[in-house]
Specification:
2 copies of one chain form a homodimer. The first copy, chain A, is α/β, with parallel strands linked by helices. Helices cover 29% and strands 35% of the residues of chain A. Chains A, B: Residues 2-178 form the Prephenate dehydratase domain.
Chain lengths: 274, 274
C-alpha cells in the first residue's frame, strides 16, 4: 500500500506517517496541495496532511482545498506533540545563522534570544528543509530548528533539546482515504467534521445550525469560519462534533438538511494520540 | 496628529492612511506588532492595521495581539478594494523574475501562468517591498505585483492592470485609537467586535452566547475561533455584531456577563467604504 505525506523525510508529517503506516511504502510530496492531489489521482491509497496546531491555529491550505476543490474524507486523525530541537553538523559548531520554518522560529524565539542574540534568522519552507540545507553546508556556521526525526534523517547533532516555548504544543493530522483503517495506536475519540454553508434567506442560520447539535447534547469541539472567497463577510463554517453517539449525530445531520442548511462532510474519523 | 500604519509607503495600509488622515503626519512601521506597539507607547495617536481579507481570511497577527497582549480598541473600520498590478521599471522590460507577497502571488497566479510561464517567483514580506526592491535594481529583468500606489511611490510602470483573479477582493482595516473620529468618508455600518472566552463548566456555552444575540435579532456578521494557545481544542471566539441598535447590544453584553461568559471588547466602530 502507498501512503503520501507532506515531506521531506524528517518532517512532523513524516513522523506521523512512520508511526501510522510502519510497513507501507511512504511517498513525500513538496506541499499540501500536492499531497491531496496524489490521493485524488490514485497515486497513493492514503494521504497524511496537517490540519491544526494548538498555537498557530488551522492550516488554511488543507481546509480550503478540502472544502473548495476536493471530494475527499478524512478517515483518521492523529494528534502529535510538537517538540523543536536546535540542530547543527557538530556540537562545537560556531552558530551565526539559524534556519527554520516561521512557526518553529516563533516557537524558539525566547531560546534564541537568550543563547544566540546575534544570530541571523532565515526562514525556510519547512523545518525539514532547514535541516537538510544545513547538512548540505557543513563548512558554514549554520544551525536549524527542526524535530528529532530530522536530526536522524540528515545526520545532525542536537545542540539544544526541546527549545519550544510552550509544552502544550500539539498538531492534528488527517489521514485521507476511502475507508477507515484499524491503526495499532491509542484511540481516544470519534469525531465528524463538517463544512456548513448557510442560506442567505434563513435568519439566524448559524444559531439554528448549532441548535441542532446543542439540544441533543452533542458536543462541538471546534467551530471556525473561513471566507467563501466570494465577498467580504461571506463564510463557510468548519464544525467538529463529537461522534460518540452515532445515531444521534445522524439525526442531527438529517435535521440540518431539512432546515435548508447545506454541509459537506470533511471527515468521519477516529482520533489517535501519538 | 500622528498616525502609524503598516508600511512601507505604497502599501495598501498606506493607501488607507492617506485617505483617512490626508492632512496628518503618517508614520510607517515594519510589521503589525510594531504598528500596535507604537500606539501603545504613545508614539502615535491613531494606528491602522489590516484585520481580514475576503479571500485569505483573518490576519492572525492582528487579532491574536489585540486579544492576548493589548488593551486597545478599534474606533473605525475601513473597507478597501484590493487590486493588483504588474509593475516594472519600463514597459519593454524583459521579465524573468517576479517579486511579491505570497497573497498577491496567489491572486495573480492565473495571469502569470498565462503570460510569464517561465518566470521565477520570489516571495517578499509585502507588495510594497517588492516594488521598492525592483525599483532599486533597474538593470535586472525583474517585475513586482503591487498596488497602484506602489507604482507612484517608486516611479514604476504598470505593465498589466488589475491582474487579481477575483473582482470581489476587499480588505478590512482597523483604526486603533482612544476615541471615535469623524472621517470624511462614506459610512455604511456600525459594529462591535468581541473576543469571547467561554467557561469550561457551562455546557453549550457557545450556543448560549449566541442565543443572547439571536433572540434579540442582533445580526452576527462574523464568528471565528482562534486557539487560546493553552491546549489543543481550547479557543476564544471573535464575534462581530451589528450595532445599529446600541441599546439592545448593551443589554446583550450585560446578559453575557450574567451568564458567566467573559468578553474583551476589541472595537466599537463605524465602518467606512473607501
Amino acid at each position: 500500500m502507498k501512503v503520501g505525506y507532506l515531506g521531506p523525510s524528517g518532517s512532523f508529517t513524516h513522523n506521523v506517517a512512520v508511526k501510522a503506516f510502519p510497513d507501507d511504502e511512504r511517498m513525500p510530496f513538496a506541499n499540501i496541495t500536492e499531497v491531496i492531489k496524489s490521493y485524488e489521482e490514485g497515486v497513493v491509497d492514503y494521504a497524511i496532511i496537517p490540519v491544526e496546531n494548538s498555537i498557530e491555529g488551522s492550516v488554511h491550505e488543507t481546509l480550503d482545498y478540502l472544502f473548495h476543490q476536493a471530494k475527499i474524507e478524512a478517515v483518521a486523525e492523529m494528534i502529535q506533540p510538537i517538540k523543536q530541537q536546535l540542530l547543527a553538523t557538530s556540537k562545537d559548531k560556531k552558530i551565526e545563522k539559524i534556519f527554520s520554518h516561521p512557526q518553529a522560529i516563533a516557537q524558539g524565539k525566547k531560546y534564541i534570544k537568550a543563547h544566540y542574540p546575534n544570530a541571523q534568522i532565515e526562514m525556510t519552507a519547512s523545518t525539514a528543509y532547514a535541516a537538510r540545507f544545513i547538512a548540505e553546508n557543513p563548512a558554514e556556521p549554520f544551525a536549524a530548528i527542526a524535530p528529532v526525526a530530522a536530526a536522524k534523517e540528515y545526520g545532525l547533532e542536537i545542540i539544544a533539546k526541546d527549545i519550544q516555548e510552550m509544552d502544550e504544543n500539539y498538531t492534528r493530522f488527517w489521514v485521507l482515504g476511502r475507508k477507515k483503517y484499524a491503526f495499532e495506536l491509542f484511540k481516544c475519540q470519534q469525531k465528524v467534521s463538517l463544512a456548513l454553508t448557510l442560506p442567505d434567506n434563513l435568519p439566524g442560520a448559524l444559531y439554528k445550525a448549532l441548535s441542532v447539535f446543542a439540544w441533543r447534547g452533542i458536543n462541538l469541539t471546534k467551530i471556525e469560519s473561513r471566507p467563501l472567497k466570494t465577498a467580504l463577510g461571506e463564510y463557510f463554517f468548519i464544525v467538529d462534533i463529537d461522534n460518540t453517539n452515532e445515531a444521534l449525530v445522524t439525526f442531527a445531520l438529517e435535521e440540518l438538511h431539512l432546515l435548508g442548511i447545506d454541509y459537506k462532510m470533511l471527515g468521519n474519523y477516529d482520533v489517535y494520540k501519538l
